[in-house]
Structures are given as structure tokens and as C-alpha cells.
Amino acid sequence: MDTFIQTTLQSGFSVVVAAFLLLRMEGELRALREAIDRLRYCQTCRFAPVAESREETAS
């Protein structure tokens, strides 16, 4: 019984740590993906979302 509890606690701890790291990395990956999407478009191009927002604020 003691072996079963010890094994369960060790496995559970590993799962909790992995879940915590995955959830934390999710936000970082989302921010990275947004930054890559912004870099994909030329900022001087009229079709780029970044350029459109700058033109609206300049007017």
C-alpha cells in the first residue's frame, strides 16, 4: 500500500508540473505567434494591418 501511494504521488507531481509548464508556455507561444504574424507583413505596405493603424492615427 505504501508503494502504491508513493508511486501515485510521484506520478501526480510530474503531471502537475508538466501541466503548469504547458499552461505557462501557452501564453508565451501565443505572443510569439502574434509577433511573427506582425513581422510577416511589410510595415510600409498598404495591406499590412500595422500600416493601416498607423495611417488612421496620423490622419
Low-confidence runs (pLDDT<50, min 5 residues)?
A: none
Tally of individual domains:
1
| Helix-strand sequence | HH
Cα distance spanning the termini: 74 Å
Structural class: mainly alpha
What does this structure look like?
The protein has helices at 2-40, 49-58. It has 59 residues and is mainly alpha-helical. The protein has one domain (2-58). The longest helix is centred in the middle third of the chain and has 39 residues, at 2-40. It is rod-shaped and about 70 Å long.
Give me a quick take on this structure:
The protein is 83% helix and 0% strand. It has helices spanning 2-40, 49-58. The model has no long low-confidence stretch (mean pLDDT 77).
Core attributes:
about 60 residues, mainly alpha
SSE topology sketch:
Layout: H1 2-40, H2 49-58
